[in-house]
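Data availability (excerpt). All sequences and predicted token strings are deposited with the supplementary files. A representative entry, Ribosomal RNA small subunit methyltransferase A, is shown inline so that the format can be inspected without opening the archive.
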Amino acid sequence: MANNIEIGSPTRTRAIMEAYGLHFKKSLGQNFLTDINILRKIVTSAEITTADDVIEIGPGIGALTEQLAQNAHQVLALEIDQRLIPVLGETLAPYDNVTVVNQDVLQADLSQLVATHFTGDRPLKVVANLPYYITTKIIMNLLDSGVALDKIVIMVQKEVADRLAATPQTKDYGSLSVAVQYAMDVQTAFIVPKTVFVPQPKVDSAIAVLTRKTEARVQPQDESHFRTLVKGSFMHRRKSLWNNLQGLYGKDADVKAKMQTALTKAEIAPSVRAEALTVEDFIRLSDCLLAAGVIAK
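Structure token line:
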């Protein structure tokens, strides 16, 4: 098979699939991107340079991996599908700065992988075309990993990108928006039409760029409680914050009195909906609830 054609081209993708008798696994949400210009735009959006180490999630047959390898210092690619390991061994053979590991990112110890494969003295970025069905789990897993990631650049369904970047008082703003924006600045780089994938998905995608906040940020006293509060506050979007808090903490008279004290101290009206609160509002409320002795059921 001629290797002078880039992996992400439709011609090379078809040839690789045929040579290995590959079929797309719907259970793994596999859709391969076959547009070189878009692959390059993803690398540009991530601002990848030879100073950067990169983790890629789900390299597939190596289309994006190749573009990353041409621009980064080192690339560590995590691929869950055992069938693709020998394929990647061939397609990425020209690049000595790529390591492929057959592992599920949700089961992986990211800290250990980083310590094993990188020196730790370079900016670390994640770039990935995420399977739609576990997008949120992977994003939260990355943020909870304890690994200092400078950027997370991910291809997701357009509606998920809208939720990631949403601002208060909008229909897309929710618990995911708050959880991500607490740690990262979020932008949507560009839209990726469904027509550039094989097989073609039903919806358009978007490239979301999450950049680690550089300024000192306000942090809650207890991050776990903060996360629980945020999730519970959006449990029923049409209900008031007060009703959702009762669902989270209970309706006991003593608990309700403590919640009222906390809301007053946080200067938040019980009648508002969660979508009206900023990240800072949730942090303040979380701390005030803890100070008042309110604990989730």
